[in-house]
């Protein structure tokens, strides 16, 4: 087993255990992996695998949860809130396991993000418009990596790479409401990929022993 990679079991997608990303000040470590499934005509179709990364220093902010089991961590929404609020860089690496049109990908993401912003401000609308423009008219092939990187609670970098680690940033999304809604989509109380949250909780429980 190559310790530099971790395989997401359902999709067999391999994630690097540590990454250096554009715009980040230091390497990020893999906390967990999962997948997203959509149901079409009662058949579950896997759309992408996802890996959650964070700067290692995030663990120094999580002493309050040390010694808890993975199941306890998964139920504790305040843990993931603390990870979001912690002043460390975090990134979600989405790897597509099928070809998808950029607009379709954005529409699905927007469908999850928008209801989480109760009264969008002009700043939020502008951030969502910037976000949308990254995906419009862009075919996303199987194997494409989309990185959503939270520099802090207000700024999210979007990087798209046909394979592996990107070399540049495609867009910067500047809105605290969009940044927190996006984090909530994946790690909040009703995540789009329960397997990712479960795996991240396992990784956190092991690191916080």
UniProtKB/TrEMBL annotation:
Gene3D superfamilies the UniProt entry points to: 1.10.890.20, 3.50.70.10
**Mind telling me which Pfam families this protein's record contains?**
Chalcone (PF02431)
Gene Ontology CC entries for this record: chloroplast stroma
Superkingdom classification of source: Eukaryota
| SUPFAM superfamilies (UniProt xref) | Chalcone isomerase
* Coiled coil residues, start to end: none
Gene Ontology MF, one? fatty acid binding
Q: Which residue ranges does the record assign to the Chalcone isomerase domain?
A: 12-204
Q: Name one GO biological process term.
A: fatty acid metabolic process
Give the family, as the similarity comment puts it: Belongs to the chalcone isomerase family.
Q: What is this protein called?
A: Chalcone-flavonone isomerase family protein
Q: Which organism is it from?
A: Erythranthe guttata
């Amino acid at each position: 087993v190559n310790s530099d990679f971790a395989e997401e079991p359902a999709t067999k997608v391999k994630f690097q255990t540590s990454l250096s990303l554009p715009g980040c000040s230091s390497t990020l470590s893999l906390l967990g992996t999962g997948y997203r499934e959509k149901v079409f005509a009662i058949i579950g179709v896997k759309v992408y695998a996802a890996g959650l990364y964070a700067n290692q220093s995030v663990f120094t902010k999580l002493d309050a949860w040390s010694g808890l089991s993975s199941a306890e961590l998964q139920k504790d929404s305040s843990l993931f809130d603390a990870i979001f609020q912690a002043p460390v860089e975090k990134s979600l690496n989405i790897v597509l396991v099928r070809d998808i049109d950029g607009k379709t990908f954005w529409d699905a993401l927007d469908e999850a993000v928008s209801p989480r912003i109760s009264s969008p401000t002009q700043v939020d609308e502008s951030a969502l418009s910037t976000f949308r423009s990254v995906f419009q008219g862009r075919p996303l092939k199987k194997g494409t990596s989309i990185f959503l990187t939270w520099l802090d609670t207000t700024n999210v970098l979007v990087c798209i790479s046909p394979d592996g680690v990107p070399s540049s940033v495609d867009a910067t999304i500047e809105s605290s409401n969009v940044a927190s809604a996006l984090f909530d989509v994946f790690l909040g109380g009703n995540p789009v990929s329960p397997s990712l949250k479960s795996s991240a909780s396992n990784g956190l429980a092991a690191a916080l022993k």
